[in-house]
Design goal:
Strand order of the largest sheet: 3-2-1-4-5-6-7
Number of domains: 2
CATH class of the largest domain: Alpha Beta
Helix content: 40-55%
CATH architecture of the largest domain: 3-Layer(aba) Sandwich
Bound molecules: NADP nicotinamide-adenine-dinucleotide phosphate
CATH topology of the largest domain: Rossmann fold
Number of strands: 7
Number of helices: 8
Length: 260
């Protein structure tokens, strides 16, 4: 169990990729703090982890709210004393429309969740990570940050911004024992976000949501979607000492979409 004794915060842990990461970390021995807005979902994941013999604490919070970010970190310290791993996974896709049809308030909401939330939580955990001379931050970005797709301008910009923040955090933390990396999934078709995106694309441009999913899968070299568990495996690797020399990187877990 390579994460034994580690304390991890996973945002967006109620379902999808965040749930898979939280369960994988707990199975590897970490104590996990599960943050999201929907209490029923994080409570259910905490029960699943507990039933499997792991340790997890749910905290209902909105990462777009600065005070809620503080409550997440406090919950981790109250329950487990410190934080060794922060996974900034909570995210929303936002408007599925051309840029000229995006309202500035919609743009701001996507930035507040996907980018400012990650900034705020990182800022809150870093002083203690520096003091203990160890820590890992993982930011979940997207192939959309590096490839060029239509109708997700706010999402793509937020994820590209998060890659930039990953570089800066890695540079600032590298000599203080803190590693910071990003994970860039391709189409994880099994999640709510992906289902909603395919539904909105089908409404916006016409066509069938299942056919859109198949197109997304065929846009990878492997010709298939990624699973939440495959993303969680990469998160586990990067969070563990197996990745002790890896920092400032964006690991593409996309079946072959992006090659840099
Ligand atoms: N699925 C894909 O194809 C794909 C591809 C590339 C990247 N990603 C990225 O992977 C991450 C997880 O996505 P997913 O596909 O697993 O989506 P999902 O199933 O919709 O899960 C998103 C999670 O984030 C939480 N969340 C959303 N807004 C939040 C907020 N303001 N505060 C706190 N928690 C919030 C959600 O819970 P609540 O709604 O209850 O708050 C939920 O637990 C996202 O960052 C996404 O951009 C996904």
């Amino acid at each position: 169990m390579l994460l034994e004794g580690q304390v991890a915060i996973v945002t967006g842990a109620g379902r999808g990729i965040g749930r898979a990461i939280a369960k994988r970390f707990a199975a590897e021995g970490a104590s996990v703090v599960l943050a999201a807005r929907t209490a029923a979902e994080i409570d259910a994941v905490a029960r699943e982890i507990g039933a499997a013999g792991g340790k997890a604490v749910p905290i209902t919070a909105d990462v777009a709210q600065i005070a809620d970010c503080g409550r997440i970190v406090k919950a981790a310290r109250d329950a487990f004393g410190t934080v060794h791993i922060l996974v900034n996974n909570a995210g929303i896709y936002g408007p599925v429309r051309p840029v000229e049809q995006i309202d500035p308030a919609e743009w701001d909401e996507v930035m507040a969740v996907n980018l400012r939330g990650a900034f705020q939580l990182s800022a809150l955990v870093l002083p203690q990570m520096y003091a203990q001379k160890s820590g890992v931050i993982l930011n979940v970005v997207s192939a959309a940050a590096k490839a060029a797709y239509q109708w997700g301008g706010a999402y793509a910009a937020s994820k590209a911004g998060l890659i930039g923040l990953t570089h800066t955090l890695a540079a600032e933390g590298a000599r203080k024992g803190v590693r910071v990396n990003a994970i860039s999934p391709g189409p994880v078709l099994e999640t709510d976000m992906s289902r909603r995106l395919r539904g909105e694309l089908a409404n916006f441009r016409g066509g069938d949501s299942a056919a859109i999913g198949e197109q997304m899968a065929q846009g990878t070299l492997q010709g298939r979607p990624q699973t939440a568990d495959e993303i969680a495996s990469t998160a586990f690797f990067l969070a563990s000492d197996l990745a002790s020399a890896i920092t400032g990187q964006t690991v593409n877990v996309d079946g072959g979409i992006v090659f840099y």
